[in-house]
Every structure is written in C-alpha cells, then in structure tokens.
Amino acid sequence: MNTNSAKKEDILSRFLLEREKDPGCFDNKYLRDIILNFVIAGRDTSAGTLSWFLYVLCGNQRIQDKIAREVREATTAGDRDVGVQELTACLTEDAISNMPYLHAALTETLRLYPAVPIDVKYCFSDDTLPDGHAVRKGDMVNYQPYPMGRMKFLWGDDAEEFRPERWLDGDGVFVPESPYKFTAFQAGPRICLGKEFAYRQMKIFAAVLLYLYRFEMWERDSTVGYRPMLTLKMDGPLHVRALPRRASG
C-alpha cells in the first residue's frame, strides 16, 4: 500500500496540507504550539474530567444507575441489550441531546473538579473589579475555579455534595449557570472554543461505558487526592472494578 496516497484526516495532516498550498503561512514553531494546545487543552482536560467523573460515580451508585437508564432510553429504548458497535451507531446528535442528566452529572463533576484548578488573566489596561478593587495595566489576576466550585455562598450549603439535580429544573431540563459563576470553561471573549466538542466527546465516552458496565472502587470507601498542576491530576491511579451491566439495571 502506498502510504503517501492514504487520506489523512487528523489535525496535524490538515495543517501540513495547508502549508503545502502556502509554504509561508506558518512555521514549525507555530505548528508545534497549535498541536500542543490541542493535546493539553483538548486531551488532558477531557481525560481528567472523565476520571473524576468515574470516581464520583463510584461513590454514588444511584446516580450512576440513573445515568445508565437515561442512556438506554435515549439510544435503544431500554428494551434490549446491544453491543458496542450498535450502541455507538445509536449515539446520534438527537440521542446525545436527550441525556440532560448525564450532561448535568458531567457539569457537576467540573464544578467540583475543574479541569484547570487555577487560572490567570493579564490586565491590558487599568480597570476596577466588581468588588471595587483596582487593577493596573500589566497586573496578573489569579482566580481559582477549584475552591470557587465549593463556596457555600455561591452554591448553597450543599456546595461540597455531588448533586447533578442542581443543574436541572422541575421538568428535568438542564439550566446553565453564568460562566462567571461556573468558570470551568472561562467566560466572555476568551470562553473555551472547544466547550461543546468537549461535552459531546465526554458524553459519548460516558454513555458507552455506563451502558455496558457498572463501576465501583476496587477497595471499598477508598479515596483519591489531587495534584495541583496545570490540569487537575489525580494523585495516583484510580483503581476501579467494572462489572457487566444488563438491561434490568
């Protein structure tokens, strides 16, 4: 097989094809920075969030089962078991949009375990913050999504409780919060461009996993700590047990 003729759809190949058309459009350093941005912002964040998602679900079997039922009803109407290939074919845009509880559970995970626990902004001009604090051009302003997601005056007395229902109205419809309160994807002109893609990707992975398996901690009541890095890493591996799930639950 002539590999040169193989059609490549990955992002690096697409950039290289564009440069073949216009060799002066960008250099190797620019291309490296673009790829690193996608790797760090688009891979580590989603993978880390899914790890924390499984961790909190292991301690909340009721929530885990409720998500599994929602996935089943949105894909196969809940009346039969299907394999991975048929399940993934059922994960259409309409099916994914009919999983508000899964969306809420992922959002609740990001509230408690934001992919980027500490962030910073650079002041391009003198300004005054809403609390009256003055900042000068060139100042660096840090904010911390991790403790912000656990503040009782923002989220109520149950701020440290994993409760997806806080994101749903009385009809079970997802109701988003202001991005200035829920800062996992930032806000304003610099809001994450990949937000909707990240949700879609995580929902597909989560739907497949929870449709097929029930997860529990390998050691009952064990806990996992975190490492405050650029992204919120677990302090060690996540040891879980995956048990086959059937239509009955």
Descriptive report:
The protein has 249 residues and is α+β, with helices and mostly antiparallel strands. The chain has a domain at 27-114 and 159-244: Cytochrome p450 (Orthogonal Bundle). It is built from nine helices and eight strands. A hairpin with a 5-residue loop joins β2 (127-128) and β3 (134-135). α2 crosses α9. It is globular, with a radius of gyration of 21 Å. The model has no long low-confidence stretch (mean pLDDT 89).
Fourth CATH level, the homologous superfamily of the domain at 27-114 and 159-244: Cytochrome P450
Structural class: alpha+beta
- Give me the side-by-side strand order of the main sheet: 1-4
What is the level-2 CATH architecture name of the domain at 27-114 and 159-244? Orthogonal Bundle
Biggest pleated-sheet summary: 2 strands, antiparallel
List segments where confidence is low: pLDDT < 50 over at least 5 consecutive residues: none
Task: Tell me the layout of helices and strands.
Elements (H helix, E strand, L loop, with lengths): L10 H11 L6 H31 L2 H15 L8 H7 L2 H5 L2 H13 L6 E4 L4 E2 L5 E2 L4 E4 L1 H4 L3 H4 L39 H18 E5 L8 E3 L3 E3 L5 E5 L5
Antiparallel strand pairs: 1-4, 2-3, 5-8, 6-7
Helix pairs in contact: 2-6, 2-9, 3-9
